[in-house]
Amino acid sequence: MIKLVGFWVSPFVLRVSWALKLKGVEYEYIEEDVFNKSPLLLELNPVHKKVPVLVHGHNVIVESLVILEYIDETWKQYPLLPQEPCDRANARFWAKFAEEKLMKNSWTAMSSQGDEKKLFLQSTLEDLEKIEGELKGKGKYFGGENLGYLDLALGWITYLVPVWEDIGSITILDPVKFPCTTAWMQNFLNHPVIKEDFPPRDKTDFYFRTRREEILALVGSPSKG
Amino acid sequence: MAGTTTSDVRLIGAWPSPFVMRARIALNIKSVYYEFLQEQLGSKSDLLLKSNPVHKKIPVLIHGDRPICESLVIVQYIDDVWASGPSILPSDPYDCAIARFWAAYIDEKWFPSLSGIARAQGEEAKKAAIEQVVEGLVLLEDAFVKCGKGRAFFGGDTIGYLDIALGCYLGWIRVTEKMNNMKLLDEAKTPNLVTWADKFCGDGSVKDVMPETDKLAEFAKVLMAKFRAPPPN
Questions:
Q1: Contact A89 B74 (CB under 8 A)
Q2: Could B70 and A86 be called an inter-chain contact, meaning their C-beta atoms sit closer than 8 Å?
């Protein structure tokens, strides 16, 4: 039996479960409390101690983008990565960009205050302009007419950014500035596989409000370095 | 190098950069002829800024008129395009996943710890930074034993993706060892990696692109004086 160890709101876990569902691969989902890590998780991922972990027979695979490639290479139906080498390189490039820049910058814009907040919001908008540019002329999704690797890698934008905008009192996804991204989000959210496997808004909102308060309390505390 | 069956291949880079070296090694493995366009320290060419507007960084592989950026993305691209040459990524999906996992670990966790040695202020901090790097190398020693399965390289009998991902840093590892008068790769803790390092540096696809330690050490001094920063990204 294939197992996926995850955490309900994690964007890294969700992209893996979406990939498995798109491919029609059955699996057992094991919810992990990431604030109280189980012996199972520590044994499966001793290096990073993080979710997701995919267990496929004797194979244990960690790091979500690595898992996506493994899934695509193991189950050939519904290809996630494009066929052409330059398109594959492009998809990998933008997935890495979104992870290293957009996600970090938007999270920090949400969870910080004052000048730091302004700076990171500005960086977030600049990052999103680049993503918007990438979407022009693409069709329904980054993958064209079908959801692909890059859509799954960026799917977190559709449920985390609206929540972070609310909690952080910031505007990121302006439909006037980012019409292609806005249209892509609607297409993504309406996909049957995504609709079925989507964290509830109120629960997500509560989770991140709590996280933000913890971060602000930590930053404000004199004992924090 | 021997001729290529496809059109124009150019690589924008600089000789000290480990990231650029990855692309060069991959091209060498596939016997692809390429034009090497060297960037100068402290300035970025118009071609670089146009080809990599997002990050403005080297390496950039320009194949025909398509720019490909990010060193490990480039290595995978080279493997995909020149598929008839020796394989860089393993064919088995799980072996591939393991190679990708460790390559990501090297870039995201281990390399920052290596850069941390140069940035560490004071003896205690330096000692702690060195220990962190060695701990990472011990993990990689273990990975080598599992991946290599008794053969010369992480990739087996020939250099592969993970060899390239780690091996590109050997010049900088040696410079760090020299400048701090200690060993990061040693016989006691990482015997397999010590042997691997020599084989890697002596390989036909590597030896002409691996900078000499003394030359790199001189460059490091210039860099630190100029930018007061660790090795180039």
A1: yes
A2: no
B→A contacts (Cβ < 8 Å), by residue, are: 54, 63, 66, 68-70, 73-74, 76-77, 80-81, 93-94, 96-97, 100-101, 104-105, 139
Instruction: Choose which CATH entry (3.40.309.10, 3.40.470.10, 3.40.30.10, 3.40.50.450) describes domain A2-74.
Output: 3.40.30.10
Cα–Cα distance, B215 to B158 (Å, whole number): 28
Q: Which residues of B touch A86 (CB under 8 A)?
A: 63, 66, 68, 77
Boundary residue ending a domain (B82, B112, B130): B82
Q: Which of A45, A66, A100 to mutate to test the interface with B (most CBs of B within 10 A)?
A: A66
Domain definitions of chain A by residue range: 2-74, 85-211
The pLDDT profile of chain A, 225 residues, written as one tens digit per residue, is 899 999 999 999 999 999 999 999 999 999 999 999 999 999 999 999 999 999 999 999 999 999 999 999 999 999 999 999 999 999 999 999 999 999 999 999 999 999 999 999 999 999 999 999 999 988 899 989 999 999 999 999 999 999 999 999 999 999 999 999 999 999 999 999 999 999 999 999 999 999 999 988 887 655 433
Chain A residues closer than 8 Å to B26 by CB: none
Instruction: Report the complex ipTM.
Output: 0.94
Question: Which residues contact residue B162 at a Cβ distance below 8 angstroms, ignoring those fewer than 6 apart?
Answer: B98, B99, B102, B103, B143, B147, B154, B155
CATH (domain of B191): 1.20.1050.10
Residue B63: which domain range? Answer: 9-82
Contact yes or no for B94 and A70 at CB 8 A: yes
> For the segment B106-151, what is each residue's pLDDT rounded down to a tens digit?
999 999 999 999 889 999 999 999 999 999 999 999 999 998 889 9
Of the candidates B76, B80, B97, which has its C-beta nearest A61's C-beta?
B97
Please return the burial class of B123, using the count of CB atoms within 10 Å of its CB with bins 0-12, 13-18 and 19+: exposed
pTM listed for this prediction: 0.94
Q: What is the DSSP string of B155-203?
A: TBSS--HHHHHHHTTHHHHHHHHHHHTS-SS-TTT-HHHHHHHHHHHHS
